[in-house]
Specification:
Blueprint lengths: L12 E4 L7 E5 L10 E4 L2 H9 L6 H17 L6 H16 L6 H17 L4 H30 L8 E4 L14 H10 L5 E5 L6 H13 L2 E5 L4 H6 L5 E4 L3 E3 L4 E4 L2 H10 L4 E4 L5 E2 L15 H4 E2 L3 E2 L12 E4 L6 E3 L4 E2 L3 H11 L4
């Protein structure tokens, strides 16, 4: 039987075991898309952490899977001789990986799952812990693809034949283990035979929409048109958008959505123009311990704004810069949230806890 991972067209993350020196974690460096398709690999969890922090690997679900494999590397190559020593080394790896991207909740969810698997295996010895950590990471990897396929099929119910969908940033195969959340909904709609068009925003400052989303959709044969971020209001005013579908990096218990900077602006414009605004995210993106808009927001290097992809200076070299990587959209601007369990609708204070209970996370 063919594995769900083997059927993927795009494989951004891989665990490779057939190496004589031991397993490696392999990933597609998204910084180089669309110009080059370059895979990196490592046996060191610190290198995985660097890849996450430097956005070689990005997108909340992909970050979670990568962090789990970082823990797997830490376990396999630890050389620990006792369970206590191994658990200490895993805790050190967990701290390093957790320090990389503060907003993406899947990171912390995945690390917590792997740590619990290690603890459960402790009575069976060092080898059992190593095996349990690797198995849990693999399980998280496969589950991400299966979950997003389910999410895509559920979300496709909201897509009509002939729709034009606007999306922001990249919430596709490259942001996950290979299928996508927001783009997964689009992919599922096309698989059902629906004809759709996509409008992708460029997504400054790192151009994930222009570089990654367009690249993916072209590969999938889905019609896409690229616009600058500041064109969104005009294209909605002209009636060119039927609905908005975006991903998320963290969603609170009461429905506040953290996503790529610029998402809040699009949500406000969608509300003004009566365009449905949908968020697509697996249950692992929901933070069951957080309510309101106090989501930790990562602030990144000023040079991301002062330059185009670090190559071309576009302003005065030392001008002060504010560069939050994400913003927060309040629940009253979110028409519905698409998950692998159901389409959640307001009041989110009721529908989100109900979904998390079904997922065994509340």
């Amino acid at each position: 039987m063919t594995s769900v991972l083997e059927r993927l067209r795009i494989k951004p993350l891989e665990w490779v075991e057939d190496r004589p020196e031991g397993p490696v974690f392999r990933w597609l460096d998204t910084r180089l898309i669309p110009w080059e398709e370059v895979y990196r690999e490592t046996r060191d969890y610190r290198r995985v952490a660097k890849a996450i922090k430097d956005m070689e690997i990005r997108g909340a679900p992909a970050i979670g899977v990568a962090a789990a494999y970082g823990m797997a590397l830490a376990a396999y190559y630890s050389e620990a001789r006792s369970t206590g020593e191994l658990l200490e080394k895993l805790e050190e790896a967990r701290r390093v990986l957790a320090s990389t991207r503060p907003t993406a909740y899947n990171l912390f969810w995945a690390l917590d799952r792997v740590a619990k698997a290690a603890k459960r295996a402790e009575p069976r010895g060092v080898d059992a812990i190593v095996r349990a950590v690797i198995d849990e990471a693999k399980k998280i990897h496969v589950e991400d693809v299966e979950t997003n396929i389910k999410l895509g099929r559920i979300g496709a119910k909201l897509v009509e034949d002939g729709d034009t969908i606007l999306t922001h940033c990249n919430a596709g195969a490259l942001a996950t283990a290979g299928y996508g959340t927001a783009e997964g909904v689009m992919r599922a709609a096309v698989e059902e035979g629906k004809r759709i068009r996509v409008i992708a925003t460029e997504t400054r400052p790192l151009l994930q929409g222009a570089r990654l989303t367009v690249w993916e959709l072209v590969k999938e044969g889905i019609e896409v048109r690229l616009i600058t971020d500041n064109m969104v209001g005009y294209v909605m005013y002209k009636g060119l958008v039927d609905k908005v579908i975006v991903g998320a990096d963290r969603i609170t218990l009461d429905g506040y959505v953290a996503n790529k900077i610029g998402t809040y602006t699009i949500a406000v414009l969608a509300n003004r123009h009566r365009v449905p605004f949908y968020v697509a995210a697996p249950s692992s993106t929901f933070d069951p311990k957080l309510e309101g808009d106090e989501i930790p927001i990562e602030e990144r290097s000023p040079d991301e704004v002062r330059t185009v992809l670090g190559k071309l200076l576009i302003t005065v070299p030392d001008v002060p810069v504010y560069n939050p990587a994400f913003d927060v959209t309040p629940p009253e601007l979110v028409t519905a949230i698409i998950t692998e369990y159901d389409i959640l609708t307001p009041p989110y204070t009721k529908s989100i806890p109900e979904m998390l209970r079904r997922a065994g996370r509340l």
